[in-house]
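INFO batch 0412 | record 1 of 1 | parsing
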Amino acid sequence: MTKKPLILDACCGGRAWWHNKHHPAAVYMDARQDSIPLCDGRTVVIAPDIVADFRAIPFPDGHFQAVLFDPPHLLRAGQKSWLRARYGVLSRDTWQNDLRQGFSECFRVLKNGGSLLFKWNETQIPLSHVLPLAAPFAPLVTHSRNKTHFAFFLKI
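INFO prediction complete | emitting tokens
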């Protein structure tokens, strides 16, 4: 077991993209903590180690070697929809500032030489409108499949 977590998942949600959903080198953070039953009998479980907002990460500068940033990507979703339950929603009025602040916080808690992996689905907001919010950082590598994109950043 690692004494100090090396990885921050800043918007862990249900930890859907983790192979090991309880990896000892990671700390899982989300602004939500909930168990939401869906109409098909499944349950969305959001159980972070730390309940906190990605715009105000409660860790010191340079604390992590890696940060995963998979923020909500929706502006519109029904109040009881499974999309809202699983992914959350952004504010229509503040989403750009929220994501800008989120990127800033993720890079702040990242060590020099550390990596940030960003995931985005552009169903409602194009990736081209989001990546500039990471300035002054730019991705080194991007990978896309359908409307889901991964961007790899290095803090140097």
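INFO post-check: The chain has a mean pLDDT of 93.
INFO record closed
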